[in-house]
Amino acid sequence: MMYICTTNTSTMNRQSISFTEPNEQWLKEMVNNKEYSSKSELVNDLIRQARSQQARVDWISNKLEKAETNGFTDSNKNEILQESKDRLSA
Prior knowledge:
Low-confidence stretches: none
Largest sheet: none
Radius of gyration: 20 Å
Strand content: under 5%
Number of helices: 3
Structural class: mainly alpha
C-alpha cells in the first residue's frame, strides 16, 4: 500500500490514498520506466483521461436524449456518426 500525507496548498491538494499491491507495483514500474516522473503525475494523468472520457460519454448521452425527446434531428446518420468519431478522437 502507498500512503500520501494530507495537506492543502494553494496549487495542489494532497490526499491520503491506498493502492492494492498489484496497482502499487504497476505505478512503480511506470515511474521506474521513466514514463512518468512521479506516482502523483501518473495518477493525475489517469484522472484527466477519465474526466475527458466521461465528458465524451456525457456529450453522446445528451445527444441521444435530445434525439429521443425530440424524435428527430437535422443531421443524418452519417453526420451524427462522424461528429461522434471526431469528438472521440479529440
